[in-house]
Write a structure and sequence with these properties.
Blueprint lengths: L2 H8 E3 L7 H7 L4 E4 L7 H18 L3 E4 L3 H11 L9 H6 L12 H15 L8 E4 L5 H15 L4 H11 L6 H10 L5 H15 L7 H23 L6 H26 L19 E4 L2 H4 L15 H9 L4 E16 L6 E6 L7 H9 L3 E4 L13 E4 L14 E4 L1 H4 L2 E8 L24
Parallel strand pairs: 2-5, 2-6, 3-4, 3-5, 6-11
Antiparallel strand pairs: 1-8, 6-7, 8-11, 9-10
């Protein structure tokens, strides 16, 4: 069997929602499902993740979605989908309030539809069983400080003093993370001590609040953890090595673990003491879905990241929980369009995605029959050719099509992911902040079509 024949034997066509049935079947009893993307600005990646996530929530009882986004902003979504008081009138307003670049990652039409669906789904469920939505990332240093400060003022806790110390430490930098990074890179001293003391003090004080919402307490503590991780990230970002990348992915993994523990605890609090003979009757354990870029979710050990001692969430979570618990799905396409920028912080643009580089995984799939396909290889004996490293497209928020040859990561695809979704042609998503996209004039995003 040659390489093309093996890929075809592992593939099934992907044309409608029913075509993801084999994927749901193979995911089986997995507790953590990682859903990737080859860019942060492609309509079909969001659309497919939405459809897969809906099925996981409805059919397999998944408890939350955690995304490559800021904790404070994504917690606004969590409040909205769970019907919190003053969470916002509609998903559009909640998402439009996101102002950290790149806004289009979560403030887009595709997300509006999904968030409204999730809110509607949660309306039918008891408070403790509503599906949550959270952010995993580390960028929200000042935003998280503000959340903590506002909460402590509301409940009048003594921990506010430690918050003030942290504020005073960061104050000279005027909420400019670049300035903080530059200063701590060349001048001894940082705010590390202050933020650690803040978390310790906060945890002690939060234990005194008996009548507060458990999730709100978790939110405050998590914001403190974000501040610690963000300070560490920004302090190392100018070193020019892999430190900041690794700190970021370790932090995202830590947040995912905390979310699993939090939801596990919610389940356990409802259990009555049972004999070991009845252990199989216990409720399902907490289950989480992760949305992030392929570079974060595909096992780093299967790429050239390994040579530079880079790690990622996909590697860390699989090391800890193993194949029976974690299932990962990669995504990519041969050509199309994407939302991205020319440089960090610049205006978003709709950009052309040229045909994939010769010899890449995308080029290989394209050569077979130019059709969308779901490829699954778990527990299959693969040929040597299938286990070779080939370039896998990786488009970031900054993208230069003229330098397309540099947008590939050498990857042993079957070792990076348990399954892969290949799309022949994709289009840019629809950002809420882009001219031409209006509240009452959304493009037709659903029903599902790829």
């Amino acid at each position: 069997m040659n390489l093309f024949q093996q890929i075809q034997s592992l593939s099934s066509p992907l044309k409608n929602t029913k075509d993801i049935d084999p994927l749901l079947e193979q995911i089986g009893k997995s507790k953590i499902v990682l859903l990737g993307e080859a860019s942060h600005g492609t309509h079909e990646y969001y659309q497919l993740r939405v459809e897969i996530s809906k099925r996981l929530i409805i059919e397999k009882g998944f408890n939350f979605i955690a995304v490559e986004g800021d904790w404070p902003d994504c917690y606004k979504i969590n409040q909205y989908v769970k019907g919190f008081t003053d969470a916002g009138p509609r998903a559009y307003e909640v998402l439009f309030s996101f102002n950290r670049w790149p806004t289009w990652m979560w403030a887009n039409v595709e997300m509006v539809y999904f968030i409204e669906w999730l809110r509607e789904f949660n309306l039918q469920r008891p408070k403790d069983k509503k599906v949550g939505f959270y952010g995993l990332d580390v960028y929200s240093l000042w935003e998280s400080l503000n959340v903590i400060s506002g909460y402590l003022q509301k409940v009048d806790l003594q921990a506010a003093e430690s918050i003030e110390k942290a504020y005073r430490c960061f104050e000279p930098f005027s909420q400019d993370v670049q300035q903080y990074a530059l200063t701590t890179a060349f001048v001894p001293g940082s705010c590390e001590k202050e933020v650690v003391e803040m978390l310790v003090s906060l945890r002690k004080q939060l234990t005194l609040l008996k009548n507060e919402s458990r999730e709100e307490l978790f939110n405050v503590e998590q914001n403190a953890q974000v501040v610690i991780n963000a300070e560490k990230y920004y302090r190392t970002m100018l070193k020019g090595d892999v430190s900041s990348w690794n700190i970021r992915d370790e932090a995202m993994t830590q947040t995912l673990e905390r979310l699993l523990d939090f939801h596990e605890d919610l389940l356990e609090k409802k259990l009555k003491p049972l004999d070991f003979e009845r252990a199989g009757m216990w409720p399902k354990r907490a289950k989480g879905i992760v949305w992030a870029h392929n570079t974060h979710l595909g096992d780093a050990r299967a790429t050239d990241m390994k040579e530079t001692k880079m790690i990622n969430l996909g590697e860390l979570i699989k090391k800890k929980h193993g194949q029976d618990v974690v299932y990962s799905v990669g995504f990519s396409s041969y050509q199309g369009s994407v939302i991205a920028s020319d440089e960090w912080g610049a205006l978003m643009k709709r950009k052309k995605v040229d045909p994939a580089r010769k010899g890449s995984w995308e080029d290989l799939f394209h050569q077979i029959d130019k059709e969308n396909r779901l490829v699954m290889w778990r527990d299959v004996k693969l040929s040597r050719e299938m286990l070779l490293r080939r370039g896998l497209r990786a488009i970031g928020v900054v993208y230069h099509p003229e330098h397309e040859s540099g947008n590939y990561i050498p990857t042993i695809l079957p070792e990076a992911f348990d399954a892969f979704i290949y799309l022949e042609k994709t289009k840019a998503l629809s950002p809420l902040h882009m001219k031409g996209v209006r509240d009452k004039d959304f493009p037709e995003t659903f029903p599902f079509s790829v």
